[in-house]
Amino acid sequence: MAATRSAFRPVAGLLAALSMSLAAGTAQAQLFSDNDARKAILELRAQVAKNDEQARARIAELEAANAQMRTQLTEQLGALRRSLLDLDKQIEQTRSELAGLRGGNEQLLRDLSEMNKRQQEMVQALDERMRRLEPLQVSLDGKDFATTPQEKRLYDEAVGHLRNGEFEQATAALTSFEARYPDSGYVESARFWRASALYGKRDYKGAIAGFRAFVAASPKHARAPDALLAIANSQAETKDPRGARKTIEELLKAYPDSEAAQAGKERLAALK
């Protein structure tokens, strides 16, 4: 926390220096000669450039912060955003005060307008970065959990491949997702859909292994009954009716009131 406060001191100093410089400029506005005005313009440009450079450096530091400092980062970004907005108000007020200076007033006003634009862009960029840090609340297969926008996007893309019948792409994407986010709230559903993708590409042995691992790891998951029925269907496809009947009996015993169990009864009758 001490390091963070220290990082803000240059920005605070720059804001104070710019405020003092603008106040002094107002008090002595009538005393400037053309050369004095140009000199003031050059000094202000240098101060603006320095302020811009240090603000960019601070943003780079904030982006490097890890997940454990997200709360502190949000507070710091909020403080910086307020400082930038205050500076924007000061610039607008100074714009009218500097209108009385001779010589390079027009160029100075253009510089101030450009700086104002940059400050607003920086505020918008900070807001966007803050939104990316905010977790999303998701409800999936009867389970509520927090996730990140990127995590949700990758999961949705992977499942989208499956819905489009792109089983190879779905298998690869879901495998990659599970490896990248092993502790995600999506991971159980991702395992189920990966096994479904294997079934879709007619890799029945792989599908049986995938569904069996899913049921073993998540027996209370909402899709566990569907996984057992999918195992029975895969066994039937591999000419293993005895194994299919055994799996359906397991389904009826473990999840007797599920829709998958009702479908399993019909499947069982067809196997006899």
Give a quick rundown of the structure:
With about 270 residues, the chain is mainly alpha-helical. It has helices spanning about 1-25, 35-65, 70-95, 105-135, 150-165, 165-180, 185-200, 205-215, 225-235, 240-255, 260-270; strands at about 135-140, 145.
The neighbouring-strand order within the major sheet is: 1-2
Helix percent reads over 70%
Total of domains? 2
Distance between the termini: 71 Å
SSE series: HHHHEEHHHHHHH
Which structural traits does this protein have?
2 domains, single chain, 272 residues, 11 helices, mainly alpha, 2 strands, Serine Threonine Protein Phosphatase 5, Tetratricopeptide repeat
What does this structure look like?
It is a single chain. This protein is mostly helical and about 270 residues long. It has two domains: about 1-135; about 140-270, Serine Threonine Protein Phosphatase 5, Tetratricopeptide repeat. The chain has helices spanning about 1-25, 35-65, 70-95, 105-135, 150-165, 165-180, 185-200, 205-215, 225-235, 240-255, 260-270, and strands spanning about 135-140, 145. A two-stranded antiparallel sheet has the order 1-2. It starts with a helix and ends with a helix. Residues about 1-10, about 20-25 and about 25-30 have low confidence and may be disordered.
Write the layout of secondary structure elements.
Blueprint: H1 2-27, H2 34-63, H3 70-97, H4 105-133, E1 136-140, E2 143-147, H5 149-163, H6 167-180, H7 187-200, H8 204-217, H9 224-237, H10 241-254, H11 259-271
Antiparallel strand pairs: 1-2
